[in-house]
Task: inverse folding
């Protein structure tokens, strides 16, 4: 089955700096790649996603890039703010039903 | 903004007991899912459900697990005879349809089996 690896496991950045989280996937048939943000006591919240026919997608301060050849995708957060502190998960899906998640990255934005 | 809700937020049960975890998906969504996250591990897919049938299930989802949509709003996960290793956070999710893959997650139910 699909295996998603996510790095780093923790990331500490100064407010205003950028944060980058990287994921790799194993199954070349995967075609949908969402990113989720999870705050303490809450469920994962979808923040951005990308399909395999697109190389990059941006939504305000967050962007996702996809390299199908290398089977990796990344989340970029620019101008980080304290409210960006959370656990971020990448995921991959072959069939839109089953999401395979990475292990998560705990992002801390230092004021 | 519509959201997925789950009850209870925390369930403590003894090994061997049956538990039912409840979810109310977003009202116009047609696909429903259960995932679980054992402490310190990845979020794992359990099952997807569409049109009153299981559309896919993982190897974790054995005969001890079942899902049901008993009415037009609730979606339940039943574990017939809980084991210690079933202790985890269980997340329900829903999505609009196959062409809109975005899955929206509930806040989770923490299941503790003693």
Result:
């Amino acid at each position: 089955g699909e295996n998603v690896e996510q790095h780093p496991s923790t990331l500490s950045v100064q407010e205003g700096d950028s944060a980058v989280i990287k994921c790799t996937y194993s199954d070349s048939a995967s075609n949908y790649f969402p990113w989720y943000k999870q705050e303490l006591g809450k469920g994962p919240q979808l923040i951005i996603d990308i399909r395999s026919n697109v190389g990059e997608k941006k939504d305000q301060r967050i962007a996702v890039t996809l390299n199908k050849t290398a089977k990796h995708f990344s989340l970029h957060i620019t101008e980080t703010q304290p409210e960006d502190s959370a656990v971020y998960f990448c995921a991959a899906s072959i069939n839109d039903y089953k999401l395979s998640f990475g292990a998560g990255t705990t992002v801390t934005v230092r004021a | 903004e519509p959201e997925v809700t789950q009850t209870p937020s925390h369930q403590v049960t003894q090994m061997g007991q049956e538990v039912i975890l409840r979810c109310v998906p977003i009202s116009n969504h047609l696909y429903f899912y259960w995932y679980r996250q054992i402490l310190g591990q990845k979020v794992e897919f359990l099952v997807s459900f569409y049109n009153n049938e299981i559309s896919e299930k993982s190897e974790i989802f054995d005969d001890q697990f079942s899902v049901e949509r008993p009415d037009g709003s609730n979606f339940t996960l039943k574990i017939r005879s809980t084991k210690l290793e079933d202790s985890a956070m269980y997340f329900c999710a829903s999505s609009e349809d196959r062409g809109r893959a975005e899955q929206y997650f509930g806040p989770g139910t923490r299941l503790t089996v003693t």
In short: The mean pLDDT of chain B is 93.
